[in-house]
Amino acid sequence: MKNVKMLALAGATVAAISGNTFAADRTDLHATDYKWLQFNAMYSIGEKPDNPASGDQHNYLEMEFGGRSGVVDLYGYVDVFNLANESTDNGDKNPGSGTSKIFMKFNPRFSIDAITGKDLSFGPIQEVYFSTLFNWDGLNGEGVNSTFWGVGADVNVPWLGKTGMNLYGYYDMNAKEWNGYQFSANWFKPFYFFDNKSFLSFQGYIDYQFGADEDDNMFVPKTSSGGNIFFGLYWHSDRYALGYGLKGFKDVYLLEDEGGLVGLESTGWSHYLSATYKF
């Protein structure tokens, strides 16, 4: 599967630089604009990285949004953890723990097809993008503050349908340096429809970093590769959704599992429960 996806990305890159493209009708760039917004009440069990000496559970509220406007395709979310600011036996976001209260992902992509006015579709490649990704948490200068820049495409994958794929270069905003690459993919596949028009979906994503420099820091050592994968089963109606997600981690954020004096767990599985209201 990994080879198939990398070949698809290579095809997207070739299409982006090829002169053998066909003009597309883009007289109205906003003809297919859309937007969506939803709030997800969520509970996480075992999210990585975590400290084995503390708990591994927390509640959080997620504002998730996305859409298309002209040349810009956008996805993002903002998470607020431990909403009541409680101290619990199993909580990994307890007051005084030093953890961040907020995490944000912002993923704008810019359609090269729309910018150039050319149809760059080829085989399973439906549309080609200049892709960016920003990850921020609430810790200034020491938490997750990273940005990614690269090329992406919407790829028609058998059964899954349209799957967003991106290949990025990774820039560490804390260290102020480029350090490796990331491959990302995301999908949303409705697969069973009920008589009342609600449906079940298989949805998820992959974020895999590779080619980074290793760091033998005695407190928190870093590896050359790592990432996570999410598999979600959700029920959707027009206004509501309920879901369960299983997420696997392997040296996530390039943190060596149980490495160094801190000994953070960065490899393993976690569980997510969610209830959604759609606007």
UniProtKB/TrEMBL annotation:
Residues 1-23 form the signal peptide. GO terms for cellular component: cell outer membrane. Gene3D superfamilies: Nucleoside-specific channel-forming protein, Tsx-like. Keywords: Cell outer membrane, Membrane, Signal. Pfam families: Channel_Tsx. The keyword Glycoprotein does not apply. GO terms for molecular function: nucleoside transmembrane transporter activity. It comes from the Bacteria. It is found in: Cell outer membrane. InterPro entries: Channel_Tsx (IPR003055), Channel_Tsx-like (IPR018013), Channel_Tsx-like_sf (IPR036777). Belongs to the nucleoside-specific channel-forming outer membrane porin (Tsx) (TC 1.B.10) family. This is Nucleoside-specific channel-forming protein, Tsx. It comes from Shewanella frigidimarina.
